Structures are given as structure tokens and as C-alpha cells.
């Protein structure tokens, strides 16, 4: 039982996930601090409050509702998501597309119907495998096929 737990903990993706979680937590605290220090006061100034609406509350009965904290958390979330998207996701997607290998198309994977028996055959076939009737190979696909040179 302990060996299974050790294997689970030492598995590479679990360690990578733990590192990512720690970095994400640190990044979130930086963005939250930035939004509380600069963005929230700017929004407070723009909306006419006294610079910072973290302390904004309303009362119903004897209960206090600190809606300013919810707004600050939403702002921090939007900033975090925007920074992650524009500084990590977009560049990584570009890098992945740049280095993605072009898969060679298999000429046998493209199909067509035999004009004699209407069975599905490869587009480059010159004879139907079902009715043995001769068919004209599709010319554009033949250009893709590399014929090995005789030895």
C-alpha cells in the first residue's frame, strides 16, 4: 500500500502539478496585490468613491455585506486570467503551431467509389479489390505518391 502511494507521489506529473500550483499561488498573490494597490483605487476614483472600495459594504438588518471584497476578487480574477492568457497561452499556442510536425498524408487513406460495383476503394487504385474491374486512378493523388526507384 505504501509502495503505491510512493509511486503516485514520485510520478512526474504529480510533481509538475505541485510546482504549477505553487507558482500559480504566488502569481495570484502578486496579481491580487497589484489589483488592490493600483487597479481597485483607480476604479474607485473613476466611480466617485474615496479611492478604494474594498471597505464598501451594505447592511441588511444586523448583517454586514462587504461587496467591495467581492468586486476586488473579481477584478483580480480577470487580471490573472488576462495575464495568463496573453502572456502564456497565446505565445505557447504560437510556439506549438510553429514546431508542429506536418503529418504526411497517406494516399491510401483517401477513398472513392468503384464505378462498376460502387464499393469503397483507395483513390489511387487502378483495379477494384472487390469486382476486379479496372478503374482510372485519380491523377492528383498519384502526384503525391512517391514511387521508389528500382535498384
Description:
- The protein has 151 residues and is mostly helical.
- The longest helix is centred in the N-terminal third of the chain and has 36 residues, at 12-47.
- The strands form 2 sheets. It has a two-stranded antiparallel sheet. Strands 3-4 form a two-stranded antiparallel ribbon.
- The protein has 4 helices and 4 strands, in the order ααββαββα.
- It is elongated and about 90 Å long.
- α2 (12-47) packs across α3 (67-99).
Residue-averaged pLDDT, rounded? 78
Globular, elongated, flat, extended or rod-shaped: what is the shape? elongated
Percentage of residues in helical conformation: 55-70%
Q: State the order of secondary-structure elements, H for helix, E for strand.
A: HHEEHEEH
The strands making up the biggest β-sheet line up spatially as 1-2
Q: What is the straight-line distance between the termini?
A: 60 Å
| Main sheet properties | 2 strands, antiparallel
Radius of gyration: 31 Å
Low-confidence stretches are: none
Number of helices: 4
Please tally the β strands and state the result.
4
What proportion of the residues form beta strands (DSSP E)?
5-15%
SSE-based structural type: mainly alpha
Amino acid at each position: 500500500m505504501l509502495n503505491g502511494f510512493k509511486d503516485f507521489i514520485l510520478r512526474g506529473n504529480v510533481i509538475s502539478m505541485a510546482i504549477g500550483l505553487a507558482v500559480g499561488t504566488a502569481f495570484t498573490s502578486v496579481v491580487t496585490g497589484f489589483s488592490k494597490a493600483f487597479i481597485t483605487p483607480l476604479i474607485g476614483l473613476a466611480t466617485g468613491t474615496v479611492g478604494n472600495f474594498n471597505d464598501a459594504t451594505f447592511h441588511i438588518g444586523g448583517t454586514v455585506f462587504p461587496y467591495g471584497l467581492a468586486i476586488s476578487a473579481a477584478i483580480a480574477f480577470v487580471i490573472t486570467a488576462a495575464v495568463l492568457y496573453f502572456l502564456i497561452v497565446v505565445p505557447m499556442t504560437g510556439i506549438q503551431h510553429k514546431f508542429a510536425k506536418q503529418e504526411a498524408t497517406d494516399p491510401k487513406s483517401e477513398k472513392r467509389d468503384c464505378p462498376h460495383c460502387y464499393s469503397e476503394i483507395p483513390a489511387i487504385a487502378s483495379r477494384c479489390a472487390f469486382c476486379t474491374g479496372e478503374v482510372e486512378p485519380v491523377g492528383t493523388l498519384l502526384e503525391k505518391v512517391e514511387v521508389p526507384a528500382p535498384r
